[in-house]
Amino acid sequence: MHHALGGRILALDVGDVRTGVAVSDELRVTARALETVATAQLASRLPELVSEYGAATVVVGRPRNLDGTLGSQAAKVETLVAKLRQLSEAHFVYEDETGTSKLAEAAESPENPAAGSDAAAAAVILSGYLAGRNERSNA
Question: For residues 21 and 138, is the Cβ–Cβ distance under 8 A?
Fold first, then answer.
């Protein structure tokens, strides 16, 4: 699905308690940590963020087990995404989040330390998605 140029992309690193949120720049090249939201509040906060940033796409990190299969945490994420899809017109896509927490610890945002490690993990997920998207579009 092709969206108009200029629309940003949001990313979520969903946890049982907290969800990190990241946003792309308008050209969809870079990602930055935005904020951390209580997962219980995500259904009310995400539509606000989609509207505020004009996001047409929301990338959601989906964890895999070491053997590559989807486990119980992935099922929780999928259940939440099904609920979020009913509340937003954005297009939701999954991105493998394996190893993002460790990368996020090394890449926490110095310009926005209040965003926290969950948001930094979302930025890592979004960066991976953007890199893959650019590779696919240049193929």
Answer: no
Every domain of the chain and the residues it spans? 9-137
9-137 sits in which CATH class?
alpha beta
Handedness of CA 58, 48, 29, 31 (dihedral sign): negative
Residues of the chain with pLDDT under 70: 1-6, 99-115, 134-139
Render pLDDT for 81-93 as a digit per residue (tens, 0 to 9).
Answer: 999 999 998 999 9
Per-residue burial over 24-38, b = 16 or more CB atoms within 10 Å of its CB, e = otherwise: beeebeebbbbbbbe
What's the predicted TM-score (pTM) here?
0.84
Residue 101 CA to residue 98 CA, distance in Å, equals 8
Q: Cα(13)–Cα(20) distance, rounded to whole angstroms?
A: 5
Give the model's pLDDT for residue 71: 86
